[in-house]
Amino acid sequence: MPVTTIDTTTALILIDLQNAVVGRPASPYTGAEVVARAVELADAFRHRSAPVVLVRVTARADGSDAAPGRTEIPRPPGPLPAGWDAIVDDLAGHPGDITVAKRTWGAFYGTDLDLRLRCRGVTQVVLAGIATSIGVESTARAAYDTATTSRW
């Protein structure tokens, strides 16, 4: 059934909009263009007092616990630079936002995202991000599985 309306208890989940990811080459839109659109979405959700979730991927400085990535994008040699996993400034700093740190591709596995959504009575999610075929897709699949088994 197609979604024609958004429930009043819908959350926006923005995935991997952090310094290292946004700074990489992207297509068909640049990281800056994706962030600009995400800011508009987040502002609209905040204006309606709807939850905004900022998901960032993180790992130890030496990368030893980092999730395996895409093979066409080699990992930089050496330690990860300071601030690589920080949410971009344009989206950060809103006290009502929920921040989730993940260590895998999706935002549900190994995090408290499911609990935080259920506590707020969330019934739908809108997903956006920069790496659609990695973080966004993995989170979408897990959101469906979580919603059908736990009933947000």
Describe the model:
The protein has helices at about 20, 30-45, 115-120, 130-150, and strands at about 10-15, 50-55, 100, 125-130. The chain has about 150 residues and is α/β, with parallel strands linked by helices. A four-stranded parallel beta sheet has the order 3-2-1-4, with helices on both faces. The chain has four helices and four strands.
Strand pairing plus helix content: what structural class? alpha/beta
The largest pleated sheet is described as: 4 strands, parallel
How would you name the oligomeric state of the polypeptide chains in this document? single chain
Number of strands: 4
How many helical elements? 4
Q: How helical, in percent, are the residues?
A: 25-40%
**Please, what is the average pLDDT?**
85
- Portion in beta strands: 15-25%
Shape estimate:
globular
Please outline the helices and strands.
Blueprint: E1 10-15, H1 19-22, H2 31-47, E2 52-57, E3 98-102, H3 113-119, E4 124-129, H4 132-150
Quick rundown:
The chain is α/β, with parallel strands linked by helices and 152 residues long. It is 31% helix and 15% strand.
